[in-house]
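Collaboration report, partner site 2.

Our partner group contributed sequences for two proteins of shared interest, and the home lab folded both. The records are reproduced in the order in which they were received, starting with the first partner submission.
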Amino acid sequence: AGTKPALVFVSRDAGATWAELAGFRRIASRRFWFSPAERPYRAYVQGLACSPTDPGVVLAGIEFGATVRSADGGATWTGHRRGALRGCHTLAFHATDGAWVYEGGGSGAGVACSADGGLTWRQPRAGLDHHYGWACAADPADPAIWYAALAASAFKAHGSGSAQAAIYRAHGAPGADGWEQLAGGLPDPIPAMPYALLTDPAVPGHLYAGLSTGDIWHTADHGDTWTQLPLNLTAIHRTLIMLPG
């Protein structure tokens, strides 16, 4: 669990008790972390991701300040990983491949990707017309196919007007083939921010996009064509999850 101010806690008994990972306080660069969005400008842990293949590897994304890595279950942490985003919004490992990690955020290109478990990162920009990233997700069968939702700016993403957002697809090693803006029935631009992107671990090619208005769009062909689902969740401002069965 990540908190504001920026601390990390762990439970080893299904959430009954929690203990702070004290090593997180010893990251040297944390004195420079801050959140520009609201007073008292304290940075916070916005993203936590655990490797699906190595239980010792944990990544934490700070809003705003760094993306850091632990290789020993949170006992010790690196400083900011070069090439990752300093303003993290979403951080996720691939569902089964612990080499691949994806990040959306409000700094740099707005997206970043690692193919070595978070050790090194790239920010692929080719084909992106937007650079304020939020949600990201990857195809369960092919970690090189991943998606990101981006807006033109933070003000447009979170404001009361049109988000002027878009959903993009990348394919290949990080940064190899660039980005493609997805259409196929999606509004252009998307007026409400896609805060959530969700792939189905059991069905490759499927992707759900949850908008701030509560609308959900679905594609079954890696984003080539889209259909708006006949339901509304009133509002979506963080994420969607899928339960087994």
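Second partner submission, folded after the first:
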Amino acid sequence: MNQNILNTEVQKFISDNLGADISRIIFSKSPFAAVSSKELAIQIESKKRTEKKLPLWFNTPGIYFPVKLSIEQTSSEITANYKSELVSGDTLIDLTGGFGVDSYYFSKKFEKVFHCEQNAELSEIAKNNAKVLGADNIEFFQGDGIEKLLSQNQKYSCIYIDPSRRVESQKVFKLEDCEPNIPAHFNALLEKADTLLIKSSPLLDISSALKELKNVKEVHVVSVKNDCKELLFLVKKGFEEEPEIICSALTDTGVEKYTFTISEEKNYQISNYSKPLKYLYEPDVALLKAGCFKLISRDFGVLKLQQNTHIYTSTEKVNHFIGRTFKILKIWSYSDFGKLNSVKTANVISRNFPLQPAEIKKKHKIKDGGDDYLLFVNGPGEELLAVHCHRLV
């Protein structure tokens, strides 16, 4: 960490050049003897990436930014704040502290937070920024968090851990494929705290993770603007019941939540499916990732189009649906769509349909965008349908 980057004139240069071409910055001579062009480029590029994701860091003078990979891997403010509401107590240890965003938000709920990070520079950066942000109750340790935890007698109110995947090319993975290996250390972790909060990538299969873990009280599936961001497993020592699956769609104004259990979803039977009526509903990605397909019909008062078509319909508008709502303008059998359709600019959605959106747009010469939506779906009698809609706010 180059402390000269925090000098006033360097900070002003970084702020003044947020819109500059990064390659030009790299290949130009640095105006500062103690700060290289590459270092300036790193600060500019990484700070730009925090404008929406981490507005507090972006707007606070004196923040030092790491390489862009660390920014990409860190939690956003909105998800970090959500996690901080799930746990509380006297002490929390963050075993995989990184840039320190999660630790900062936990510090608002705990008397003391311990931030562990193996990367020496990243640890130093997080420490600097915590001081700038006034988070004086965070203590920093540079080294292996698991080793630190297991080498001392101290117990904590909560352990937070965000393991990273060891094999990035795998699309399907288990917690045992991550570092630290939580299943291998699970019993030891519960000796050090009665509460564990484990963060994982949305690519992790929930059912597989529940087989790897014990005492899971809650699984939180967290989305931001219909983009699934995190899976969170809240472990409580001694808890032996079925965990709740909590789908949380985060918005700028709050959180929309839906809670169910896997056995509820498994045991519920839909008696009939429906053709598209007056309104269509596309569930938020958090519900779909959680595997909630049938209970949506029961709890939101909507009808499912088909067993494997996760689109729903109703004659009366449902006001509290978690997801997107569309008003139907016209319905075609797909076999007639090419002959009768006059919509040439639209947002295309394909669900349980043999063609993907890109293929549909190419085949029917539809330009992407505009206010119109075309939903291509498989109906209750296996018929292929095209539905012209407007999205309702």
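Feedback sent to the partner group on the second submission included the following. The two ends are 46 Å apart (CA to CA). Residues 45 and 127 are 21 Å apart (CA to CA).
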